[in-house]
Design a protein that fits this description.
alpha/beta; Rossmann fold; 2 domains; globular; Pyridoxal-phosphate dependent enzyme; pyridoxal phosphate; TrpB-like_PALP; Ser/Thr_deHydtase_PyrdxlP-BS; magnesium
């Protein structure tokens, strides 16, 4: 488990790199949802997603311990974050990405001076390759989610929400491997346990929900979803026990619901977010939470959406 003290230590370590992202509101979307909606804008974070928080905490830790080379396995956002912070602290980074990774995310990794290697289409394929590269080059593998330093870094979002809003009833968080939600759970439930934390997964990538129902980690087969940042095969061994201990509920959203939420956010709030971010909005707008007249925070996890991909959504 991750203590609140570790999250405060993470915030101190990453404060010179990571932004405190704003929270904004939408009257229209609040009216549609029957709740007062707030949006935690991690899509405006450095490198375009929340991933920079955990990556910075972990990479700075290993750099202080003498690491000169790191690897990561990522569909994009974690890779960008690792490449960015590695470049900042002066160590080399190789990012193993899936063969179908979004081109804009690959270009961003390269812009941060990270080397690219492609491997398969699932996390089950690219994770072992990234670890192998680290071992062969006397480097350190930086996990995308299943690591105490990564989780503590992501948990700093929870601290910010508590400080930015006086009254919060529910926080809605997208779930991939579980690093983001387990970090937020660790921060919120130890400080203000009355706040409900509800996770959201795509219907086609519901490995954490299935695992929670079975009471043990369940792996799913390769899946497709427009929320590419949430296409993990299974929750992590570090993250899952935290989810088991603290989570209030997990809901799922369809591909159409994600797409509709993405468009609505663009049209009404003028914010470009990733489909992974839109899952939280979709859950609230489609009444998956079954609550009314509450103060709800939707975590918008990232904004690194490829313009051509966005155009294809509109064409549908």
């Amino acid at each position: 488990m991750i203590t609140v003290q570790k999250i405060f230590e993470a915030r101190d370590q990453i404060k010179d790199i990571v932004k405190e992202t704003p929270i904004f509101q939408s009257t229209l979307l609040s009216d549609l949802a029957g709740n007062k909606l707030f949006f935690k804008a991690e899509h405006l974070q450095r490198t375009g997603s929340f991933k920079i928080r955990g990556a910075t905490n972990k990479v700075m830790h290993v750099a202080k311990n003498g690491a000169t080379f790191v690897t990561a396995a990522s569909s994009g956002n974690h890779g960008q974050a690792v490449a960015y912070i590695s470049n900042k602290v002066g160590i080399k980074a190789t990012i193993v990405v899936p063969e179908d990774a979004i081109s804009s995310k690959i270009k961003a990794i390269q812009a941060y001076h990270g080397s690219i290697e492609t491997c398969g289409t699932t996390s089950a394929e690219r994770l072992p390759r990234a670890k192998q590269l680290a071992n062969e080059n006397e480097g350190v593998f930086i996990p995308p989610y299943d690591d105490p330093y990564i989780i503590a870094g992501q948990g700093t979002i929870g601290l910010e929400i508590l400080e930015q809003l006086d009254s919060v009833d529910v926080i809605v968080v997208p779930i991939g491997g579980g690093g983001l939600i387990s970090g937020i759970l660790s921060a919120i439930k130890e400080v203000k346990p009355s706040i409900q934390i509800i996770g959201v997964e795509p219907e086609t990538a519901n490995d954490t929900l299935l695992s929670l129902k079975k009471g043990e980690i369940v792996a799913i087969q390769q899946t497709k979803t427009i929320a590419d940042g949430l296409r993990t095969s299974q929750p992590g061994s570090f993250t899952f026990p935290i989810v088991q201990k603290y989570i209030d509920d997990i809901v799922t959203v369809s591909e159409q619901e994600i797409q509709d939420a993405l468009f609505l956010m663009l049209e009404r709030t003028k914010q470009i977010i990733e489909p992974s971010s839109a899952t939280t909005v979709a859950a609230v707008l489609n009444d998956k939470l079954n609550v009314r007249d509450k103060n709800i925070v939707c975590v918008l996890s990232g904004g690194n959406v490829d313009v051509r991909t966005l155009s294809s959504f509109f064409n549908r």
